[in-house]
Amino acid sequence: MTSVQHRTPETVNWGPESAFTRRPLRSVPSRHYVSLALTIAGLGLGAIVAVTLTTFSMSGLHAAGGWWLYSGRLSGMIGAYGLLLMTVLITRLPVLEKSLGQDHLVRWHRLLAPYTYWLLFVHVVTLIVAYAQMQKTGLVAQTINFVLHYPDMLAAFVGFGLLTMAAATSIRQARRRMKYETWWSVHLYTYLGLALVFFHEIRTGVVFIGHPLTTAAWELAWAALGIVVLAVRVGLPLWRNFRWQLKVASVTEVAPKTYAVVVEGRNLRRLAVSGGQFFQWRFMTKGLWTHSHPYSISAMPRPPYMRLTVKSLGDQSSALATLQPGTRVFAEGPYGAFTHHKSETKQIVMIAAGIGITPLRSLLEDLPHGVAVNFIMRANAVEEIAHRDEIREFVAARAGSYTEVIGLPNEVPFDGAVLTTLAPAIASSDVFMCGPDGFMNFVQGVLTALNVPASQIHYERFTF
Amino acid sequence: MMRRAPFVLVGTVVGLSSVLTFRSTPATIHLSLSGGAGSVGVVSTGGATTSTTVHSTATSSTSTVPTSTPAPTTTSAPMSNTVSSSNGVAVSHARCATTTSPSVPATTTPAPTTSTIHSIPVSPNGTGGPSGVGGDDNEGNDGTDMSASGPIHVKLAASSVPSTRTAHAVTTTTICTAANGATPNVAKHKHPTTTTTTTVHHTPTTTVHHTPTTTTTKPPVTTTSVPPTTTTTVSATRTAVGATYNYNFGTMSVSVTVNGKTIKSVKVASLNDFGSGQSAYIDGQAIPLLINEAMAAQSAKIASISGASYTSAGFQASLQSALTKLGL
Fold first, then answer.
1. What's the pTM value of the predicted model, to 2 decimals?
2. What CATH number does domain A340-458 carry, 3.10.580.10, 3.30.530.20, 3.40.30.10, 3.40.50.80?
3. In the predicted model, what is the mean pLDDT of chain B?
4. Which of A33, A39, A51 to mutate to test the interface with B (most CBs of B within 10 A)?
5. ipTM score of complex
């Protein structure tokens, strides 16, 4: 116990000398897991296409509605598989989350979303047309026929409606205009939608009828996924927070409009967290409890304390300034793969801008011995830099340098020339950066121009 | 992500090919429902390895009266091309199930001519003729034309031939493999004559048909006394109703009665066509055939009926579950 000298949150020493070292180390799965997961995803896709293809025949194709029927079947099956993958991606399944990081997973989820939705849309439309042609009725009559006479088809239509709502509210323009809570609750209904559409798949799907093995595999996949969602998204956070009993200990303004929130809890000694990771924080006070926000830890925990640093950028983060000590906190996490485990070399360049300092601050503290660090801080003014003294102390405690590039962007450039001057060996280093989106996109371009391999560039985005 | 795209690709290819290899392809069967209404009954199995044309050229069918009729009962096809041109004609082939149902008092036949019946009625819209191209999935495709079209030659009595038809000798239902869906309906009937030459050609695209005979002569009769030899060891008659299956156009359950290991009868225990008359019509056409097939095969491993492949799937599934219940 090197760090039990502090008793109140105000007297906690967050510097290098008080680091709590007896915490459990976070296990990081091999990066081959990602390749394995992708291969499994591919296997599933191939299998889905194949089981659908076995229901096709040339004569069926040439019959009335044949093309429509087969297009509808194939799009429905692939679309359903897309839903499965999208759900897997947002389960925050620990093995995937640790390998890829939640921001990557969510990005893939959003990447798949439009394809999946439009496949399902095509599925609905083409099958109505196909059956209408086969039965020689109109589209409306056929739709009514489906709803009235086909098992579970009414539920499927309702489920598709729910998925459509989630898709519509997730379109960028629409999402920007609505409250996060609205979007979130609509999105929550997709679980209901998934359940509703599931039954028509196995009870009317040609692919499944008379194929008990295929049906069993499909049911098993979704049942397992349902259990994982409940366990990881509901059970695990509830259990952890029951153990942690987190509450606000203190709130301090460490830079203009930037607040360090110290949280106190139990059993934090057993918390396996890495520098650079974040939690989804939910402050249980009026106006804040409905909404969880991703904030990085700005220091390694000093049990019973943890610290996050938040810049008041609008909506709720300004309300954080008024948080009263004792406020209950519900935290989901730790999440994120923006940790030192990602580094491939022994030379690390850290580039921070604005509030992007927070994950880099804890990452710096968590770096293993023997790694040289080159910390570059980009800010408009020195006063804006949060935890400036701590960072200097941590850099001083190991081999490395700390540089500040201060000034407005149009006055003081931050380009390839500056970077090569400050970090001459940048091409053979790992670069960890965090800052506003525009800044990161710009620096990423610069780094690529400087021949830094993509596998050595690591970043974390908060805007997902 | 892009770096890892090959993993997805490899996975997809492996998944696709392995499933395509190992998943049983559903039987593609052709029940010609368009055009010739009566031509229901050309059944083929999905594998479509060979197709058989059975030209029952009863060339020298003089008035030779058959002496005795051994009246073979429902025979399931052996795994070879069998041409048994005795009285109870059983022309079969690997993958062909031949149901030979002797009419009860049996066997007469003067029938000097080969009573070949081409069941090629012309449907009202003029498109009749040799059809048989049935969409594998198009239950009810063009079904609206059917009721109005020509005579139905196939009397689809489920498992037994009505005993009233004492006149003719044998009704042969040949269920045969066809290489593709195109199956002209060559329906031929052969009388049980002793001098019949029956040739079996292997050519693609044809199938055989069963038609009831129309002979009415009553020559000196030799009544068969050979009983249908069922070599059953266990003789408890048991009945089980299979699970109700939804086959997309309705729900169905099948009940089966067995004596020992022999399927004695197969019946439809429940049938709900979701209120569709067309579906009911197709079921009415297909189910008797399916029952015949099941009786012939003595199992649920039967070919689907084209144009009624959903019905067939439901029938097979329910029959299988009934048989499973009976421990068969």
1. 0.62
2. 3.40.50.80
3. 54
4. A39
5. 0.74
